[in-house]
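batch job 7 of whatever, protein = Peroxisomal membrane protein 2
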Amino acid sequence: MTTLNSFISSAASPLTTDAKKHYLTLSSYSPSYHLISTISKPPHFFNPTSIATKSRPFWPNKAVTEDREAVPTTDDQDEENASIPTQMEDVNNNTTSDRLLNAAIVLGVGSLAITKLLTIDHDYWQGWTFYEVLRYAPEHNWNAYEEALKTNPVLAKMVISGIVYSLGDWIAQCYEGKPLFEFDRTRMFRSGLVGFTLHGSLSHYYYQFCEALLPSKDWWVVPVKIAFDQSVWAAVWNSIYYVVLGLLRFETPLNIYNELKATFWPMLTAGWKLWPFAHLITYGVVPVEQRLLWVDCVELIWVTILSTYSNEKSEVRISEVSEVESASQPSKSPRDD
């Protein structure tokens, strides 16, 4: 019994240095002894807390998970990124086609106009030299214009105003920085339509009204007509121009009103820097039937200013609306997927 107790106590007590060496020697030569000794190994060689202290760090896996959440790689994003070069190529193709179409329109209309002006006397060209054709073309075109004013004055003035307002908007777009053949055809068409349908006809009757209202030829009539022109008529026509352009752009009445309210006074005062000097000739020198032609020549400058103001206000308002809409939309989090 004493021997058994001593054996148990020796097995439970830590091994001495010689005993450890003897244990390692036997375990290296005897697999069975190694198995038995492993099973019966004292608790001193097995520290359960070492598993917790030597566990793998978790932070790399967490970082990878966070990266995946921050930058999700989905099939939709891959398709969107792959479609960006295609979209840019489509935009370039559309720009090139628009440029070619605009160039064709400008060259075609310009060639037609020059041909009409130069061939005004084609019935009498028999025996004429090219110098004679160029010499008599301006005079005979002027005679044809005066004849049109006698037969159909309203239509003649409508055509002139439509051409001038189209050219004025084209000049305005070039002044804004667009290349010569990259103009907005729809915008130019709107301006020309307003000039053709409204400015030519309304101006014809307005100048007739002015002559009936103030028929006197005294010197003081000219300043009175200029004052009336730059107060009443300028306010009426600028308002008509902005309202009709807004309707042609399919804008809401509230937007049209806000645009008119913002530009009414600046445009009226801007006209005072140009038109009083031009109207000294309009009401003091030019006959009533020829006044619209002179005014339309000055209108090339004025329509450029009008069109620039109108489209700048419209573009700024559209950009502000788009920014408000984008800001009001809630941002989509990657975790929402």
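notes: The chain has 13 helices and no strands.
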